[in-house]
Amino acid sequence: MNTLIESIQQLGSQEKLQLVEDLWDSLETESVPPISDPCFQELNRRLALSQSHLESALSMREIADKLGVRL
What we know:
Blueprint: H1 2-9, H2 13-26, H3 37-51, H4 60-67
């Protein structure tokens, strides 16, 4: 395993990013564990809450301005 890590450490930035992307793409969605009922219920609660308060939503530009980030 150490030789694998050493080999990865010798890669350039772009090659490492490509490796990460390739690994991510290789994950099978079927292998992801199912979401628990309490978690699913909480996500639904948050979705309903956000949809009922659309007037308070911020645009990406407003969020970036508050964070002092340029888009």
